[in-house]
Amino acid sequence: MSISMAISLLFSLLFLNISISSAASNPTYQSLLQCLSQYINPSQNVSTILFSNTNPSYASVLQAYIRNARFNTSSTPKPVIIITPLEESHVSAAVICSQKVGFQLKIRSGGHDYEGLSYVSDKPFFVLDMFNLRSISIDMTDESAWVETGATLGELYYNIWEKSNVHGFPAGLCPTVGVGGHLSGAGYGTLMRKYGLSSDYIVDAKIVNVDGKILDRKAMGEDLFWAIRGGGAASFGVVLAYKVKLVRVPETVTVFRLERLLADNATDIALKWQSIAPTTDENLFTRMLLQPVTRNRQRTMRVTVNGLYLGNADGVVALLSKDFPELGLKNENCTEMRWIDSVLWWANFDAGTPPTALLDRNVNDADFLKRKSDYVQTPISKNGLESLWQKMVELGNVGLACNAYGGRMDEIDDKETPFPHRKGNLYKIQYSVNWNEPGNETEMNRTSQAKALHEFMTQFVSKNPRRAYLNYRDIDIGVAENWSYEEGKVYGESYFAGNYERLVDVKTAVDPNNFFRNEQSIPPRTK
């Protein structure tokens, strides 16, 4: 061994010993360690799954799944300890011991909570980070899969593709999104109009309840099983895994992307899209993107229509030539590919990227971002669109992503799962603003723009309640300070409409003391 290597090893050992010594002097760490040791196999070293802020790996573990840079600053509240379970019994122990030690427990799957509620709190808290629990078991005999909640959507898609090129799953576009949060908040993607939501295909689950017991569907009962399929499972327990049914996809699908500016009939396209996209063939999903841009030193609007058709290019060109001639779709605008490659296309990978890229958990650096949502139930008129263009150009930085509903979404009852936004909704809007310069001034400017556009859109969107999508978390809607029924109703009816009441009933039955909570969780009824 060289002298330099020996010195490096010596300093590493010294730093590790200091870290262990610091942890040992931390009373919270010691209390949690002692408690966990009572519930975890003695042959396992409990300290290997605990990271206090004196551990040299603490920062890297915490930051690995922060997907919004707004919550990765020096002033962001940090967990006292991060717990990284390696097996199911560790989760049970974490739930029991967090209560005994008296700390709030935040549950993080993939870290894509737009408001950081899975890893930020203004009260002392632990983070239960599920990233090690990511196994996926595909069973092609009954076309199903057991997926642990620390897995990502990309890993799920890849594992399905390894078994079959004619099966898929109706879930989101971003491959680094965690299965746990996505499915428990309903989950949607390009197969939504054909098949419905991710949560519509959950057939079983395993959850750790407030007593630390592991329950499957039969043991938990149908009310709790209903709640964790779109109601935000973090209000009710820690879901370990979901069993989902796979869906059939054709060997060949078609994608396309068309862009138009205001000078190129973009307004007419946006107007017509609102009536055609939700009513056309259920094999076609389209997303319309509205974005202010600069062309020839002039500010204008760009309308982009992205589409996935479950069939060949000739089929979608013929369909839209008849239903939507204003779009002007031609064969040369289309690309035929396998469904797995369409997943990569929608995630903006370069053409020819192999499916193994879906296994990469660190594809994109986290931007600063703010998101909001709305539902449109009546088409916006041409005059309304023109006023919207004016407002978006004036604000300058906020884009809108409009996702067509209809098809299978119209056929599922709005009380089948907690997700209520079914028939009667033409499309969902996601408000999107990103920036990469840190600082309060820039953040205030960008988030104020999002709020201003959201306020402007009041005239065009759903009312009483004004609806929102749980997985597009937005604390501007309201937050719980005391977790009262009335506080929860403010955001609860936006996310869940008439299903809020049943969710409160389930919460009261399974977690009456409100251990599982966050700033927008379902509250229990008070006695």
Automatic annotation (TrEMBL):
Transmembrane segments annotated in the record for this chain: none
Classification via Pfam families: BBE (PF08031), FAD_binding_4 (PF01565)
Family: Belongs to the oxygen-dependent FAD-linked oxidoreductase family.
Keywords recorded for this protein, A-Z: Cell wall, Disulfide bond, FAD, Flavoprotein, Glycoprotein, Nucleotide-binding, Oxidoreductase, Secreted, Signal
Protein name as it appears in the record: FAD-binding PCMH-type domain-containing protein
Compartment(s) of residence: Secreted, Cell wall
Region forming the signal peptide: 1-23
Keyword Flavoprotein annotated: yes
Gene3D superfamilies in alphabetical order: 3.30.465.10, 3.40.462.20, Uridine Diphospho-n-acetylenolpyruvylglucosamine Reductase, domain 2 (3.30.43.10)
Coiled-coil intervals, chain numbering: none
Source superkingdom: Eukaryota
Any one GO MF annotation of this record: oxidoreductase activity
Cofactor needs: FAD
Primary localization class, coarse: secreted
InterPro entries in the record: BBE, FAD-bd_PCMH, FAD-bd_PCMH-like_sf, FAD-bd_PCMH_sub1, FAD-bd_PCMH_sub2, Oxid_FAD_bind_N
